[in-house]
């Protein structure tokens, strides 16, 4: 099922991000490094960043999970971090491969065939800005990167300021399969998702946990009693039917006030789990949800 693949990618990729690296198999660091012209992006996030920097025309292949922007849809797909098509990568002859997370097989392929690679470390808003800046430098798009960072900050600050005067609802965000109520992963404030919840005006009930994407039990959730449950399930069809299914699961538990009050929201938009400049869309969406929740309370 697509949601299970997305959850596996989201939780594991976030845990596996490592140190930024530039590898040159030629070993001749004294020569100027040419600006990359044939780029393979192996994740949706860095695909979107490259396109936002105005370098979409340099992409020769993208992740099989990339869906945005529309101009990349016809490009060859090379799998993802854990299932890359190594033969296709070689055939496409890239001069830069952009990875999110670590895959030693891909790294060795790059070293063995003189392919430069960049490993981005994007799991917070600050590291998102760092990745934009560094890719801007690599692609000779430094000015565009600075402008993109500034515009993203301004838009997020506007959302944060608009939410500052509202009462903050207690929020649970879940990453799970819709099949049953179990195997739940959530987010802390050390993840970009947790940070977006807070700037959009929510109070993440698991913000203080030590890992970015901790697994939690139903007992943990009952003890926290969130005001609203946000189910992140991008790519799922028929959001209304899915919401009814998930709401029944929570109500069958019988111990969550948010469920008994109908405060369960399903996010199926494709940008929800992608740390890219479209994080602004997620912040706007959450801000509207929290604002609506407050309005409904005022009307009760």
Would you write up a description of this structure?
It is a single chain. By secondary structure, this protein is α/β, with parallel strands linked by helices. It contains 11 helices and 11 strands. The strands form 3 sheets. The chain has a 5-stranded mixed β-sheet, sandwiched between helices. Helix 6 runs parallel beside helix 11. The longest helix has 22 residues, at 142-163. The chain is globular and about 65 Å long.
* Radius of gyration, CA atoms, in whole angstroms: 20 Å
Count every beta strand, where a strand is a DSSP E run of 2 or more residues: 11
**What is the strand content?**
5-15%
Strand order of the largest sheet: 1-5-4-2-3
Spell out the helices and strands N to C. HEEHEHEHEHHEEHEEHEHHEH
What is the CATH third-level topology name of the largest domain?
Answer: Rossmann fold
What is the overall number of helices? 11
How are the elements arranged and paired?
Layout: H1 2-16, E1 22-23, E2 39-41, H2 44-52, E3 59-62, H3 86-92, E4 96-100, H4 104-112, E5 117-120, H5 125-138, H6 142-163, E6 170-174, E7 184-185, H7 192-199, E8 203-204, E9 215-216, H8 218-224, E10 228-232, H9 239-253, H10 257-260, E11 264-267, H11 279-299
Parallel strand pairs: 2-3, 2-4, 4-5, 6-8, 6-10, 10-11
Antiparallel strand pairs: 1-5, 7-9
Descriptive labels:
single chain; alpha/beta; Rossmann fold; five-stranded mixed β-sheet; four-stranded parallel β-sheet
Summarize the structure.
The protein has 300 residues and is of the alpha/beta class. Helix content is 44%, strand content 13%.
């Amino acid at each position: 099922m697509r949601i299970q693949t997305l959850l596996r990618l989201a939780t594991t990729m976030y845990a596996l991000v490592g140190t930024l690296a530039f590898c040159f198999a030629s070993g001749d660091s004294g020569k100027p490094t040419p600006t990359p012209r044939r780029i393979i992006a192996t994740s949706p996030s860095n695909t979107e960043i490259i396109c936002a920097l105005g370098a979409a025309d340099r992409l020769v292949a993208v992740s099989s999970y990339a869906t945005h922007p529309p101009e990349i849809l016809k490009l060859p797909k090379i799998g993802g971090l854990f299932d890359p098509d190594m033969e296709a990568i070689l055939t496409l002859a890239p001069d830069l491969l952009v990875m999110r997370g670590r895959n030693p097989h891909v790294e060795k392929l790059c070293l063995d065939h003189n392919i430069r690679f960049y490993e981005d470390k994007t799991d917070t808003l600050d590291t998102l800005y760092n990745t934009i800046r560094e890719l801007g430098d690599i692609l000779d798009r430094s000015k565009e990167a600075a402008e993109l960072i500034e515009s993203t900050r301004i838009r997020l600050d506007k959302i944060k300021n608009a939410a500052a005067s509202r009462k903050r609802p207690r929020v649970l965000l879940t990453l799970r399969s819709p099949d049953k109520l179990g195997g739940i992963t959530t987010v802390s404030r050390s993840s970009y998702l947790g940070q977006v919840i807070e700037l959009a005006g929510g109070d993440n009930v698991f913000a203080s946990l030590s890992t970015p994407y901790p697994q939690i039990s139903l007992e943990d959730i009952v003890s926290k009693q969130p005001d609203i449950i946000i189910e992140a399930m991008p790519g799922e069809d028929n959001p209304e039917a899915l919401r009814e299914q998930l709401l029944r699961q929570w109500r069958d538990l019988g111990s969550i006030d948010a469920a008994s009050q109908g405060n369960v929201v399903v996010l199926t938009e494709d940008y929800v789990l992608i740390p890219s400049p479209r994080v602004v869309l997620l912040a706007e969406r959450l801000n509207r949800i929290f604002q609506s929740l407050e309005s409904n309370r005022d009307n009760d």
